[in-house]
């Protein structure tokens, strides 16, 4: 039964999805309108910038055309020496040929200022100037009179330009000036949505030269509200930028304008620039936005209706498989027999969901079995650790008892001689060192589990380290009467490793080979192997001892795990040596493996380390070589040299058991000792 305030899948499809769909459509419509508005304004700005550039080019071309036409007309024979009537007829014909924004053509006598001919009456269009440059046209501006000031106002109420060209007679004497008056700009009425814009011309000093509003002409932009925006436009345009900008005024009017610059045509203002603006209103720029808004509203309503219809039709089709899977999941705990999950659906995803549900049930069963196995393994591991603790306590208690007994015998004066006291103290010292080794192993394994064990890498000669370790272990090998075969080569082997930790590993491996070998031989060899582009040295320690079953070999490198064998339990040790050795070798960038064919078939331990590609290390001043395994002195102690036979081909040392009595029952230590 459905709980209170829970909704069914069908109801969610019909109601909640629709409730979420409405705001999505509403937000989408707003975003679309804003995006459209931004796009239209951007397009309008680009068009207005192009329009301003075109207007500027037209003004520059028109001024150049007028200058050329006026200069050509000033050099005609009719103007230079014709009668006033002929000149009047010529100017009338010329005015008809020039563009319609030409207001007046006038020929003036420079001597007395009389008007010889004119197309606009007898009123002079400009003051007479005697500083007209030779063979060029002088350009002046005539601003319309301000409001409330008397004076003749042109029909366009805009800035006008007056062009003046000198006229010389046949003797080369300045006789007349030919003047032309032209309006800079005529206001045209554009269709709604047109983005050509109205032209606005501002001089570099801020004077408005042309404006759609006649009362603004002749004023400075500093006198108007929002002057900062216009000053910014003038500054950017003078700097060489052609761009568009949106203008907002205090009265709420918003404009879009594009701007560019042209050279100032006025003769006495060369080097300055005019800023041309093509301006239109934001409403004109967004002329088509209302139609787009209407289309979006129609589409939104249509999508809402289609979504409602689709939800009502699809709800049963989609909800039925979900309900069947729900019933199967709710009743799966009561299925005593394995019943298949419903899967005959017409929707592939629901069939895949049913298959996944079936697989999940199978995985849960498998996981339950794995948990049971893991629980058994954890229980077994707990028993192994308990066995390890019992073994370790035994290994610790026996040396402690020996040390305590030896010290008490000496302390209580129960020894018969000084030599006997020294013998007990020596035994206590040896036992203490053995106990220290066990404790060091325990500390090392605890550091390994805590991740705090570290090595100090340095460049060392592996062959020298091996020689030192063999010297240390040779006494134990001799005492057991084993044959030692050595093949280390004659050249130094440079590796990066921790010398002390590497000695510890080698002592452990060779010591294990000696400990578990009662008869036969131990072979120690090195081999250079190329692994890819990196050379490696392989150290192999092979014995003919007890060996180990293949099924038990993977356990030897685990801490707290020892092979449960009655023969091995007769030999002392905690079983941590190989676990510590593996971690130390891996910290030095190498690897260690163990192989054995089986019980009583011997064991092979392989250690691999990367070789450093450097110059060979120089030999030490006093190398404890394999020829110096014993102490060559004149005393009565037997040396190892007296008790083995060497095969020079591979370095074989055949130790013989020697019966020693009294003070000669102990072999002397070799010179290269190992310090823990």
From TrEMBL:
One of its GO terms (cellular component) is membrane. GO terms for molecular function: phosphorelay sensor kinase activity. Residues 391-613 form the Histidine kinase domain. Its main location: membrane. Keywords: Kinase, Phosphoprotein, Transferase, Two-component regulatory system. Residues 318-369 form the HAMP domain. It is an enzyme of class 2 (transferase). It holds the Pfam family HisKA. It comes from the Bacteria. Its EC number is 2.7.13.3. It is found in: Membrane. It catalyses: ATP + protein L-histidine = ADP + protein N-phospho-L-histidine. PANTHER family: SENSOR HISTIDINE KINASE RCSC (PTHR43711:SF26), TWO-COMPONENT HISTIDINE KINASE (PTHR43711). In the N-terminal section; belongs to the phytochrome family. This is Circadian input-output histidine kinase CikA. It comes from Amazonocrinis nigriterrae CENA67.
């Amino acid at each position: 039964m459905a709980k209170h305030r829970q909704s069914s899948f069908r109801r969610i499809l019909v109601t909640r999805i629709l409730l979420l769909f409405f705001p999505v459509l509403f937000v989408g419509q707003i975003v679309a309108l804003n995006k459209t508005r931004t796009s239209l304004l951007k397009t309008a700005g680009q068009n207005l910038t192009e329009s301003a550039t075109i207007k500027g080019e037209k003004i520059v071309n028109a001024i150049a055309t007028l200058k050329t036409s006026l200069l050509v007309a000033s050099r005609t024979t009719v103007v230079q020496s014709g009668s006033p009537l002929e000149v009047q007829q010529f100017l009338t014909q010329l005015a008809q040929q020039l563009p319609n924004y030409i207001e007046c053509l006038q020929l003036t006598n420079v001597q007395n200022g009389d008007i010889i001919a004119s197309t606009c009456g007898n009123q002079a269009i400009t003051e007479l100037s005697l500083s007209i440059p030779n063979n060029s046209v002088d350009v002046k501006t005539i601003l319309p009179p301000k409001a409330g000031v008397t004076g003749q106002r042109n029909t366009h109420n805009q800035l006008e330009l007056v062009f003046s060209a000198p006229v010389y007679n046949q003797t080369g004497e300045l006789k007349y000036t030919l003047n032309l008056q032209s309006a800079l700009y005529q206001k045209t009425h554009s269709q709604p949505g047109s983005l050509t814009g109205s032209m606005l011309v501002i001089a570099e000093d801020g004077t408005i030269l042309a404006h759609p509003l006649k009362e603004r002409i002749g004023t400075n932009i500093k006198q108007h509200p929002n002057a900062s925006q216009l000053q910014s436009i003038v500054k950017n345009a003078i700097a060489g930028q052609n761009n568009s900008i949106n203008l907002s005024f205090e009265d709420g009017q918003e404009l879009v304008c594009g701007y560019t610059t042209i050279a100032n045509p006025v003769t006495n203002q060369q080097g300055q620039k005019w800023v041309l603006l093509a301006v239109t209103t934001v409403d004109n720029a967004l002329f088509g936005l209302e139609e787009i808004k209407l289309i979006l509203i129609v589409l939104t309503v249509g999508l809402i209706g289609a979504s409602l219809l689709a939800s009502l039709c699809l709800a049963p089709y989609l909800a039925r498989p979900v309900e069947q899977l729900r019933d199967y999941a709710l009743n799966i705990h009561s299925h005593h027999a394995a019943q298949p999950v419903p899967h005959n659906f017409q929707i592939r995803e629901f069939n895949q969901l049913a298959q996944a549900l079936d697989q999940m049930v199978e995985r849960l069963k498998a996981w339950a079995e794995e948990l049971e196995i893991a629980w058994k393994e954890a229980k077994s591991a707990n028993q192994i650790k308990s066995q390890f603790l019992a073994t370790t306590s035994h290994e610790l208690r026996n040396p402690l008892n020996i040390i305590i007994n030896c010290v008490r015998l000496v302390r209580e004066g129960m020894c018969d001689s000084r030599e006997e006291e020294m013998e007990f103290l020596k035994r206590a010292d040896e036992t203490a060192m053995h106990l220290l080794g066990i404790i060091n192993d325990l500390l090392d394994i605890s550091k390994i589990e805590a991740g705090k064990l570290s090595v100090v890498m340095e460049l060392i000669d592996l062959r020298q380290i091996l020689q030192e370790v063999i010297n240390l272990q040779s006494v134990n090998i001799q005492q057991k009467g084993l044959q030692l075969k050595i093949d280390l080569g004659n050249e130094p082997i440079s590796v990066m490793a921790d010398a002390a930790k590497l000695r510890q590993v080698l002592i452990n491996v060779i010591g294990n080979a000696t400990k578990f070998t009662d008869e036969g031989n131990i072979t120690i060899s090195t081999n250079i192997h190329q692994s890819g582009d990196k050379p490696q040295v392989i150290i192999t320690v092979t014995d003919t001892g007890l060996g180990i079953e293949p099924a038990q070999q993977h356990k030897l490198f685990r801490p707290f795990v020892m092979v449960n064998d009655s023969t091995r339990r007769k030999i002392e040790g905690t079983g941590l040596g190989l676990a510590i050795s593996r971690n130390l070798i891996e910290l030095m960038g190498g690897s260690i493996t163990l192989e054995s064919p089986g019980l009583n078939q011997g064991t092979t331990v392989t250690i691999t380390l990367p070789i450093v590609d450097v110059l060979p290390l120089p030999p030490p001043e006093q190398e404890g070589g394999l020829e110096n395994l014993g102490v060559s002195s004149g005393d009565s102690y037997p040396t190892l040299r007296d008790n083995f036979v060497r095969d020079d081909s591979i370095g074989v040392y055949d130790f013989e058991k020697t019966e020693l009595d009294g003070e000669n029952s102990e072999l002397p230590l070799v010179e290269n000792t190992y310090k823990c």
